[in-house]
Each structure stands twice: as structure tokens, then as C-alpha cells.
Amino acid sequence: MSSLALISCGGARIPLEESGQARRQGSTLTWIFQGDFLYWAISRLFERQFLTLMGVPRAVAAGLSPEQRGAIWHFIDEMNPVSLRQAGVVFDHTREVPGPRISGIRVPTLVIHAQDDTLQPYCNAEFFSSAIPGARLLNFQTGDTSPPSSRWRRFAQTSESICLTMRQISTPLSRRESEAKHDRCEASAARLVHSHQKSQQGAGMRALFGRIRGGNRQMKKETRNLILFFVATFVWTWACYTPIAIGHHSPYEMPWTLLLIGGGMGPSLVGVAMVLLTFEKERRRDFWRRSFSWRRIRLPWWGVILVTFPLLFAVSIALDLALGGATPGMSEFKSLLANPATLPLTVFISFLSGPWSEEFGWRGYALDPLLKRLGIIGGSCVLGLVWGVWHLPLYFMAGTWHAEMGFGLSGFWTFLVWSIGLSLLITWVYLHTNRSILAALLLHFTANFTSQLVVPYSDRVDVTRSLLVLAIGGAVCVLATRKTIQAEPRVIPGGVPTRLPEPARK
Amino acid sequence: MKYKGIPLLPLVSVAAATAVFAKYCSDMRAAQERLRGKSTVISSPYGDIEYSEHGTGSAVLVIHGSGGGFDQGELLAQAVLDEHFHCITPSRFGYLRSTFHVGATWDEQAHAYASLLDHLGVQQVGGSSPSPPGAPRRCCSRCSIRSACRRSR
After folding, report:
1. A370 and A259 share a domain?
2. Please, how many CA atoms are within 13 Å of residue A186, restricted to the half-sphere of its CB?
3. pLDDT < 50 stretches in chain A
4. How many other β-carbons are positioned within 10 Å of the β-carbon of residue A216?
5. For residue range A221-269, what is the model confidence (pLDDT) as tens digits?
6. How far does B13 lie from chain A, in Å, by closest CA?
7. Chain B nearest C-alpha distance from A505 (Å)
8. Exposure check for chain B: N or C terminus, fewer CB within 10 A?
């Protein structure tokens, strides 16, 4: 051996408490390498998270150019199929590191490492450079050298150093020449690091200046984005629905079904697109957490979500019966009782068609800015109204539930009242569950599913349930508004109360 | 708010799942194809050793990181070394077509490198390696290269 280059190398015996994160990342990666499909799917679906797992700091990942992203993707993709590498990965992860044995190395050694490498902690580089006699350490304050992300970027800058080290094999340099070349490389690297820091400082100043200019501009931008969201959602959905309605096609025949499904997904698709395009990183993370975190919903609110609509329908039906009405048909409910095996599929379809396809947009994207501008009641009512109107083309499609309702008493107008009432109720639950989009999604689901089980029911039941939900939703939101006025709520990035303040304890 | 009876939704889901599976199979085939015929396997006292070599000039043993194989070593060599090197990129124990023995050690891995270098008639070599991602506790095999190269001289 004539020379050695160690790039983002591990090998030090690091105390457990200092290497916890790296160990967790290593274990997770080892687990992902257990299956071809697992690796293939995760590396494609969760690209950003996967990069973080590979040790690329989030800030570095965010600043990558398309070429760098392409290089990373190439690197990650070339690990397929991982089943042929699995035994080696497990071997790497479980064998004891050499520790002090490494001090036996006597050849010229170049150690390259980034200080913010999360997978191979920087202390490894410090260990190598101190344990190997005469080793040179070329470090980067940021940039990670572990996975290929910025490794490729850094490699381009450090390859000269590596080549120099390697060339010592065939053309041994005098000590002075060698040191002079190393110094030149390090000076070059230092210049690169300095320019990188400078650009980061520039970005920081720009961000700070942006915040100082602050308020109104941000508000206007948010309003503009909100309007854009509504316009894009309506355009998307109505563009899908209009051909079905105008052509008098059945929405349950191909290819019109695809348009029906695609149009119905408008709010969520546009909402998620707006989140990805307009939210900064922290708010995006907040959005995803709110969308999928069960822990935000405390036990009593699970009760509210599950019980409210069955109770509301029970009261509506009881009132109808008291006034001489007939028992609802409950055809779907009877069908499910006869074939309980179809329940999961029915629940799945009901969950997708409405809650899943809409709530990421209505509650996930639009509700917060509306609440900020119009307050709890105003914001919820406007959203409910928009939501109701958005369904309009469905009234012109033969065979849909909305078309069957028509524009009569128990038709479009009652549905608008229902939408506004439901919007108020969802806002109330949303604010009490730490702005959980998941809670809104589930409440929307229980409303739809209960209705689906009870149908067909009389017009009176329909009107009663709509008025009841409006009354209950309005009442709880009025109470919520009073509480909000009485106590200062906590604020999250984006300027929206995280949740309603707790009532004062007596 | 709700669309009653969308009977084709499950079918759409099945079609989507089929498309994903087809893409997966196609990617796996492409990956297998990419590996085919690009490396050589030799027998050694430490089992089969797979390697590839490129370029002419000073010999450099390029050792891949965790999750790699000779192909990752080639990527590394392309990224960091210019064309004036003879890059030897082996697959470590348990990667691709290199044998994995239960209870293998880093020293044995080093001896395997030495066998490979002996087979290639390389007397002197430089070593270059990235970190094996996912293996914080793994041994840096480069420490063993020293003994490997001593053997090969």
C-alpha cells in the first residue's frame, strides 16, 4: 500500500450516547435493504427522507441542483437489486470496528469528511486523522460526504487531492513537493468552503430582510394563493365534470368514471400542490404531521368524531317519526348486515370518495388562512359555502346522489346548509385537535358514511339533519370564538392558532 | 361530498397496483442487466471474489461503501479519479457475486484483497473508499488494506 484516501469513513469506537442517531439511521437502512421491493419503493416514494437517512442534511438536500439530484438518483438507483447486497450490509453493520488498530497504518493518508455528516459522525475523521501518523484531514463544515448527494459535488473539488495522493504510488514526491501540493488542495478547499459560507450568509440575510418586510406583503401573498387554490380547484373539478354533465353520460361508465374520480380529487390534489409550492419547509412538515398524526386527537375527540353523526341522524329520524314520518330505508345498512364481508370495501370507498379526495385541500390548505382573515364563524361559513357550490355539476349528472336530490327543498339548498353546518362543526373539531387534518377527514367520513347507511330517508330527515348540524356547528363555534377572545392562543408558523386555549380552571 | 357506488374504484386501484408492479419488475430487470457481464469472478481461499477493472496507469484499489458492490466502486472511481489510473473495484464479502461466510472478519476481507491483487499481478496499490452508509459500527476495511498489500508485495 502506497497511499490511502478515506472518504467519510467510519471506524472509531464511538460511545453509545454520541452515536445514537447514526446507529438508528444505520439500523433503518439495514432494514430497508432486506427486500428489493422495500428498497425500490421507499427510495422512490420518500426520496427526501431517504436522503436524510443516508446522512444528507436537510439543508444540503434542499440546495441541490437538478444535476446533483440526478447524480444522487443514479447512485441510489444503482443499488438495486439490494437482495444481492443484503448479506454485506448486515456484515458491515454488525462487525466490530477496528478502533485503535488503525494506528498501524503508515502510508500517506488523506481523510475527507463533512462536519455535518449524520450517518458517519465527524468524530470518525478526527479519530483517523489523529490515530494514523501523518494523516491529513480535509474537512467541510457542511455538505455531507457520506451519501452521494454532495459527495459528488465535493468529490469534484477534492478529487484533485485524491489524485495527488494516489500519484504518490508511481511518482513518489519529495516531502516538500507533497506538502506543497496538499497545501494547495487545502487552500482550494478552504476557498470553496468560504464561498459556500458566504452564499449561505447571503441567503440568511435575504430571509431576515424578508421577515422584516413582513406582515402585509405576506398576508397579500397568502390571500392571492388562497384565491388561486379556489380557482384552480374549481377549474380542475368542473373541467372534469362538465363533459359528463353536458354529454349526459353516465358517470359510472368508462371513461367517464375516471373523470368523476379525477374531478372529485381536485381539492386534495390542488391543496397538496399548493402546500408543496407555497409553504416553506417547516409549514410543509407541519401539514404532513397534521395530516397523519393520530396522537393529535385526544380520546374525547375520538368520541365526538365517531358519535356525533350517528346521534344527529338518530335525533333527525326520531323527530321525523314523531311527526308521522316513515322509517328510513337503510338499504346499504341492511345490505352490509347481509354481507358483512363487504364492510371494509364499503368503508374504503366511502373514505376515499369525499374525505380523502377533498380534505387535504379544504381543511388542509384553505381553512387556516380563512380563519385568520374572517374568524372562526366567518371563515367556516365561507368555506362551507364554497364547498357546497363546488358540488354543483354533480346535480346535472344522471345517477349521482346529488342529481337524485335535485334543486327541491331537500336538494341543493339544503345541501348548502348542510355543507356550511358541517364546515362549522369540522372547524370546531379541527381547532380542538391541534389543527388535525386527520380529524377533519375522519369527521367528514363519519358524516358521509352515516348518511350512506341511512339512505334512503325522507326530505324531512334531510332538512332536519342539515338544520341540526348548522345549529350545533354554529353554537360550538360561537363558544369557541368566545374562548379565543378570552385567552391568547398559541401560534404556529403561518400565524394560525395551534388549538383553542384550554378553559380556565376554577 | 359523496359519490355513491363507484364500483370501478377498486378496479382502478388494482390497475394502479399492477402498473407499479410492472414498473418494479422492469426496473429490476434493468438492474440485473446492468450488472451482467461487467465483472469477473475469481476463486480464492476466501471464496469467490468479484471485481472489475478499468483504465491504465497507477493501480488504485477502490472499495465501495455499504450497500454497494463493484458497480458502486466504479461510480466512485469515475467521480474522484481521472483517467490515468488503473482502477480495481472489487465487491466486498456478501456483495453481489462475492462470497459471504458466516463469521467472516475484516482481516479475512483484507486477505481476500491480497489474493485478488496477487491474481492480477499488482505489486503496489493505492486505496480509496467511501464510507459504507448504514454501517456505523462496521470496520473500516481500509485499515486491513495495509496487511493485504504487505502480503501482495
Report:
1. yes
2. 15
3. 144-160, 167-176, 178, 181-182, 185-186, 188-215, 485-506
4. 8
5. 788 888 999 999 999 888 888 888 888 877 777 778 888 888 888 899 9
6. 11
7. 39
8. C
Same domain (yes/no): A310, A447: yes
A150, A202: one domain: yes
Query: Taking the model in full, what pTM does it have?
Result: 0.47
d(CA A469, CA A461): 12
**Residue at A216 is within a domain:** no
CATH T-level topology, domain B40-152: Rossmann fold (3.40.50)
Residue from the list A33, A37, A400 with its beta carbon closest to the beta carbon of B24: A37
By DSSP bridging, strand A136-140 and strand A109-114 are parallel
Same domain (yes/no): A244, A275:
yes
ipTM score for this prediction: 0.83
Integer angstrom CA distances of residue A414 from A43, A405, A422, A462, B39: 48, 10, 12, 8, 72
Across A50-54, A153-157, B6-10, B35-39, the highest mean pLDDT is recorded for B35-39
Task: For residues A285 and A379, state if they share a domain.
Answer: yes
Contact A25 B134 (CB under 8 A): yes
DSSP assignment of B38-105: S-EEEEETTEEEEEEEE-SSEEEEE---TT--HHHHHHHHHHH--TTEEEEEE--TTSTTS---TT--
Domain with A382, as residue range(s), is 221-497
Nearest CB among A10, A33, A261 relative to B12 is that of A261
Yes or no, beta carbons of A8 and B1 under 8 Å apart: no
Size of interface A-B (CB pairs under 8 A): 273
The answer to whether residues A236 and A174 belong to one domain is: no
